[in-house]
């Protein structure tokens, strides 16, 4: 299939509405647009540089968890969930009751990312894996009664209050299993010569167009991107997430997807996607560089603590995974008494590494602000 002559699908008349029925994508793809070749080269280079950090940074898994938290918070924000990244790191009892529904959705996303990434070691990228991930995402939150872990059996829509005023109506549910089967075959089709970044660009568009679940499609569709890259060896760790790019360019993101459906303009979408990969990978690379510099500085500082330095370093390892902690967290993770945990926090405060953020006499929380700030900006 050639981008320049691609026809995305057709609008099928239904009772009082028209659904969009996309064409299958499991085929050879070609293009004449030279800009795509340039953008593809730039994106691959940036992705390779990002992945290099995953291979050379000691104890990389300490830092990957914050990438996951950032992705969960940002991807959920696109769907209207209002949870700040510092709130996503706090325990439920420190979240205001009126904000706990949103908090649960973000925490579910974190669990879904971690579960799906771990499953890639056992299962290939597949519809089964996406359904299992969706079940985790929807567990005990809004939408939990909308077929978690199952492809939809009723018509859904995007935008508007009903099918009659929707901005976009995905394919009829009867066609979802066949379309998703075709998409899964495309991921693993060694008989077509389609570069991986082009393949996942097309796959993300197709997934969002099919909208196979009753709810949660945006989050699963964005998570599909790093899962595909990991499963095909382009990433060793889940360190690239496009949700931040999509959120900052939200209108352009939705417009690029709709231009494919309305105007058959796959070229515009692929260009947008590749720019997103290049920009996001470069930003991730820079974050890793800053993490390494900060780590060198703070670990040098804790070495001045003498015999308390080993426990302080263990506390730093906890802070890299979760930069908002309490004395109880240190007790549990480092295995020290309450007085020792509090003494460690006083040491880290004295060194300017953490600061107390609750202003309470009891149940205090402490933030590693300089590290957290690397994921906020």
Short description:
The chain is mainly alpha-helical and 377 residues long.
Blueprint of the fold:
Layout: E1 9-14, E2 17-22, H1 34-56, H2 61-78, H3 85-88, H4 100-119, H5 127-137, H6 176-188, H7 196-210, H8 217-231, H9 243-248, H10 250-263, H11 266-302, H12 309-321, E3 324-325, H13 327-334, H14 338-350, E4 355-356, E5 366-367, H15 369-376
Antiparallel strand pairs: 1-2, 3-5, 4-5
Can you put this structure into words, describing what you see?
It is a single chain. The chain is mainly alpha-helical. The chain has two domains: 285 residues, Fido-like domain (Fic-like fold, Orthogonal Bundle); 79 residues, Arc Repressor Mutant, subunit A (Orthogonal Bundle). Helices cover 58% and strands 5% of the residues. Strand 1 and strand 2 form a beta hairpin. The radius of gyration is 23 Å and the shape is globular.
Round the Cα radius of gyration to an integer and report it. 23 Å
Outline: globular
Q: What is the tally of beta strands? A: 5
Stated plainly, the CATH topology of the largest domain is called Fic-like fold
What's the CATH architecture of the largest domain?
Orthogonal Bundle
Keywords:
single chain, 377 residues, mainly alpha, Fic-like fold, Arc Repressor Mutant, subunit A, three-stranded antiparallel β-sheet, two-stranded antiparallel ribbon, 15 helices, 5 strands, 5% strand, globular
């Amino acid at each position: 299939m050639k981008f320049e002559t691609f026809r995305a699908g057709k609008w099928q008349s239904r009772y009082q509405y028209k659904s969009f029925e996309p064409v299958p994508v499991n085929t050879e793809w070609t293009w004449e647009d030279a800009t795509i070749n340039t953008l593809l080269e730039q994106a691959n280079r940036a992705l390779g540089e990002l992945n290099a950090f995953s291979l050379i940074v000691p104890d990389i898994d300490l830092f990957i968890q914050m990438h996951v938290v950032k992705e969960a918070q940002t991807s959920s924000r696109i769907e209207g969930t209002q949870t700040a990244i510092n709130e996503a790191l706090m325990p439920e009892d420190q979240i205001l009751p009126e904000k706990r529904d949103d908090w649960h959705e973000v925490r579910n996303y974190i669990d879904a990312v971690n579960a799906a990434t771990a499953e890639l070691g056992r299962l290939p990228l597949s519809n089964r894996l996406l359904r299992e991930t969706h079940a985790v995402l929807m567990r005990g939150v809004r939408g939990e009664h909308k077929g978690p872990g199952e492809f939809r059996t009723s018509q859904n829509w995007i935008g508007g209050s009903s099918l009659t005023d929707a901005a976009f109506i995905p394919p009829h549910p009867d066609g979802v299993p066949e379309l998703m089967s075709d998409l899964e075959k495309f991921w693993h089709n060694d008989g077509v010569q389609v570069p991986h970044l082009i393949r996942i660009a097309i796959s993300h568009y197709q997934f969002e167009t099919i909208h196979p679940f009753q709810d949660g499609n945006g989050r699963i569709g964005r998570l599909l991107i790093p899962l595909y890259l990991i499963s095909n060896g382009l990433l060793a760790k889940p360190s690239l997430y496009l949700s931040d790019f999509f959120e900052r360019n939200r209108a352009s993101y939705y417009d690029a997807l709709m231009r494919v459906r309305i105007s058959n303009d796959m070229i515009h979408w692929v260009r947008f996607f590749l720019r997103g990969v290049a920009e996001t990978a470069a930003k991730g690379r820079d974050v890793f560089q800053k993490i390494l510099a900060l780590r060198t500085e703070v670990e040098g500082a804790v070495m001045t603590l003498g015999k308390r330095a080993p426990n302080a370093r263990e506390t730093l390892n906890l802070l890299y995974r979760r930069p908002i902690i309490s004395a109880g967290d240190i007790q549990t993770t480092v295995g020290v008494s309450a007085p020792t945990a509090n003494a460690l926090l006083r040491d880290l405060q004295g060194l300017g590494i953490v600061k107390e953020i609750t202003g309470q006499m009891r149940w205090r929380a402490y933030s590693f602000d300089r590290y957290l700030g690397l994921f906020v900006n």
